[in-house]
Amino acid sequence: MVSAPKNRYPNIFDANQAGLEHACNLLRSGKLVAFPTETVYGLGANATNAKACASIYEAKGRPSFNPLIVHFPDITEAEKRVSFNAKAQKLAHAFWPGPLTLVLPRTENCDIAELCSAGLPSLAVRVPGHPIAHALLQQSGLPLAAPSANASGKISPTKSEHVAYSLGGKVSCILDGKDKACTVGLESTVIDLTGEVPVLLRPGNITREEIEDVIGSIQLGKSLMERKAESSSGDETTEDTLQPSDPLKSPGLLKSHYAPTLPLRLNAVDVAADEALLAFGNKPLTGSGYYLNLSEKGDLLEAAANLFAALHALDQKPNVRGIAVMPIPDTGLGLAINDRLKRAAAPR
Ligand code: TXA
Ligand code: MG
After folding, report:
1. Each residue of 10-43: pLDDT tens digit?
2. Among 85, 133, 184, 224, which is most exposed with the fewest C-beta within 10 angstroms?
3. Taking residues 235-249, what's their average pLDDT?
4. Which of 72, 57, 76 is closest to 124 using CA atoms?
């Protein structure tokens, strides 16, 4: 039997066997479960279910699609989804399970929702060290996409009550880590290993020096370098003195790395024969050779779940001069969808 939830917050559950089973069932049916890690509480969803991942953004009220970290019980499961190079392997063996996130190229048959990569060819992966996180990953058998379990713009949670307070009923179940959760208390260190030289995207508990001891020299991400230059002392500043809780935009990556090759025409009210159509709603425009509908029902959650896969698919159509996009309402998840579409349509 599932243990009685705490009175004040009906969605906080003890992380005993019954609580874990309850959480696994919810995750399998596409619901959100918050769980403790050694860094902060994560807001988890089945990472292979695009709609479940879209509901993460909806619950957090994120106005844009930041890529999400996907969590695994061990390196073997991660290796099925991303390609590890020699440096990534060394780092994983040195620091996993633990507060380190590796950004690596997605494998060709990667089953993780494209929304987790926000259209990038890479995916951020991590094997967390907390026993409750590990048990949930192991018992559910699911890779879990999980950003910090707070409303967008608010502080990352290190207690189950913080999650309940910040997200309320938007999360079906919060597994309680009691006082043993989140001993690190800061989000994981994020390192991008997709290029020649590894790049530190977000500082954290595992320091630049510790990483360099294992794989040799690395670079600071663009936003970290800008901050270093701005810092008044200008000498002894390291990434450890920078504030990891700052809203580090993942280093301009989103803007430069992914845009469709074809030009996008937004808020289209008509479509030409040589344009591909990205439709929304039950009255798609007619006249185009290729067309995909983000959601026939006009459901923004479904539209968010389909967005990146649809853009990729239309972008590959031959003999098309551009993609016409029907208007998407600018409310709820529509804000994040329109933010992404505007970036994709911006002149390059
Ligand atoms: O400690 C943590 O990492 C927590 C716990 C729950 O694991 N999670 C967390 O996730 O902090 P989130 O979504 O709040 O932060 C993810 C960071 C962001 O800075 C994001 O831009 C970056 O990782 N990121 C994720 N995927 C990326 C990718 N493919 N390329 C570059 N940066 C990526
Ligand atoms: Mg966060």
Report:
1. 899 999 999 999 999 999 999 999 999 999 999 9
2. 85
3. 33
4. 72
Q: Answer whether 205 contacts ligand 1 (Cβ < 6 A).
A: no
SS3 82: strand
Let me know: does 34 contact 41? Beta carbons within 8 Å. Answer: yes
DSSP 292: E
Whether the CB-CB separation of 303 and 287 falls below 8 Å is answered with: no
The letter for the amino acid at 269 is V
Give me the pLDDT at residue 343, please: 87
Q: Indicate which ligand has the atom closest to the C-alpha of 195.
A: 1
β-partners of residue 323 are 264, 276
Using an 8 Å Cβ cutoff, are 221 and 200 in contact? yes
Does 204 contact ligand 1 (Cβ within 6 A)? Answer: no
For 174-199, letters b (16+ CB in 10 Å) and e give: bbbbeeebbbbebbbbbbbbbeeebb
Interval 211-239 mean pLDDT: 69
Q: What does DSSP assign to residue 282?
A: S
Q: Whose CA is nearest to atom 5 of ligand 1?
A: 42
Cα 117 to chain centroid distance, Å, stands at 7
